[in-house]
Amino acid sequence: MSTEKLYLESIEAGYFQNFHATVVEATDTTVVLDRTLFYPLGGGQHWDTGTLNGPNGPLSVTEVRGRTNVEHTTGEGHQLIAGDEVKGSIDWEHRYAHMRMHTAQHLVSGLVYELFNGARTVGNQIHADRSRIDFNPISFDETMLNTMAEAVNLRIDEGLEVTDSVMTRGQINDIMPPERTNMDLLPASVKDLRVVQIGEQVDMCPCAGTHVSNLREIGHIQILGKKSKGKGTQRVSYNLHIPERVREPFVDEL
Fold first, then answer.
1. What's the topology of domain 4-90?
2. What's the CA gap between 250 and 102, in Å, rounded?
3. Integer-rounded Cα radius of gyration of the chain
4. Dihedral (Cα; 74, 76, 79, 82), 10-degree rounding
5. pLDDT of 193-220, one tens digit each?
């Protein structure tokens, strides 16, 4: 049995904060649930934090890992056993920052590919306060960085919608070049992919991360700097200004 990832149900599912679940496995320091809203480390995105409230009171979730059975680290003494019912609550400020940062990464990656001769995204790290993207092959100068930031912020101001759907590899490849969507980095065994799209194919990328539903929620991007990583690869770091449009989590529980 694998953990049901509630945040993958739709873009809107990322806006839920609370959910109910059942413990299916437990160790001295971790618990596996039958369903979760907590995003585990993966795809360059950091894990969610929050709480699990069970028969013995609230527990802090400090780390979340695993792509099949998702392990929630609560520390020693949690006293939870298989069959216990819990209510989970994610740290919304932390989650929303990741949603904004990750959507910004998609937008930046798509525009860099279009603006600078097909430069690919070869790595990224999404955090709440600042994030980074590795591009290859490219050598940014200040003019190029300014051009990139201006293009990104113009798209944000357009308020493009962000949507998701399930597509096959063939369907995606008919629309976007495989090198743009980094199709070669995905296991060949995965046939049906969750695809996140910005506007009318401004960017389209297979992704299991959490995202905002409208670019206006990102806020303008600020480039913090660049760093050479060798062999034609450069790392660009960025953070985000406070957005004009901010959404609150849904009050309903999953």
1. Elongation Factor Tu (Ef-tu); domain 3 (2.40.30)
2. 20
3. 19
4. 60
5. 999 999 998 999 999 999 999 999 999 9
